[in-house]
Amino acid sequence: MNYLTYLPVWNKLTGEQQEKLINSALEKVFSKGEILHSGSADCTGLILVIEGQLRAFTISDDGREITLYRLFERDMCLFSASCMLNSIQFDITLSAEKDTTVLVIPSDIYRGIMDISAPLANYTNELMATRFSDVMWLVDQIMWKSFDRRLATFLINEANIEGTNKLKITHEIIGNHLGSPREVVTRMLKYFVSEGLITLSRGTIEIIDSDGLSTIAGE
In 3D, which of 191, 197, 202 has the Cα closest to residue 212? Predict the structure, then answer.
């Protein structure tokens, strides 16, 4: 199957341009927890998710992580090819949250086609704007939302992603997503337990009052 047809502008490219992308793209498989891309100096190429789930995150000087956004089937990551983005240095790490298959498009091939294809250039700009919007939403959450609201929002979103209210996730992983120490996460989760919103067991969080969490999240 030609997964490049996932690109919304695929049919607007010339036959020659399509052939260049097909011949250069490389399918790769990554296991859960494996790093695909690390830092702006690592110009991996553009990553198109075929199946699975990726996490894009940044790491502070003291080693603290925070999730910037997630990538699901048919999503593309531009910042794994930051070397082709003029004047933009966006230092992210990409890891597989589940066993994931991706298509890697070499940066030089994509950039060469983008320079002469208005549809691909417009799509790239729209995708870049969407990713920056995701990051600005995160900044807004960190600056203006209390931690209980952020944690409630995360649990609701995680339940929607996984399709279950019984989440197999540790306090440390939640802390990495939210950029907060594990101890802070644990204290807030225990508060949610005392309010009858969730139950906790080893490596598992079960949401028992989704409406109550939504109220805290402000939804």
Answer: 197
pLDDT in tens, 64-80: 899 999 999 999 988 77
Nearest to 158 by CA among 78, 55, 73: 55
Asked if residues 54 and 71 have their Cβ atoms less than 8 Å apart, the reply is yes
Inter-CA distances, 74 with 82, 100, 104, 179, Å: 20, 12, 13, 27
CATH 2.60.120.10 fits 3-143, yes or no: yes
**Rounded CA separation 48/89 (Å):** 20
State how far the Cα of 54 lies from the Cα of 99, in Å rounded to an integer. 9
pLDDT, tens only, 147-176? 999 999 999 999 999 999 999 999 999 999
User: For the residues 194-199, what does the mean pLDDT come to?
Assistant: 96
> What are the residue ranges spanned by the domains of the chain?
3-143, 145-217
In this structure, whether the domain defined by 145-217 belongs to CATH 1.10.10.10 is answered with: yes
Other C-beta atoms closer than 10 Å to the C-beta of 154 total: 20
Query: Any idea what DSSP says for residue 167?
Result: E
Please tell me the predicted confidence (pLDDT) of residue 191: 96
Would you state the structure tokens that stand for residue 219, as one six-digit string? 């939804």
Q: Could you tell me the pTM of the whole model?
A: 0.84
Structure tokens that stand for 82 in this block: 């930051």
Query: At 115, which helix (H) or strand (E)?
Result: none
The phi, psi pair for 41, rounded to 5°, reads: -75, -15
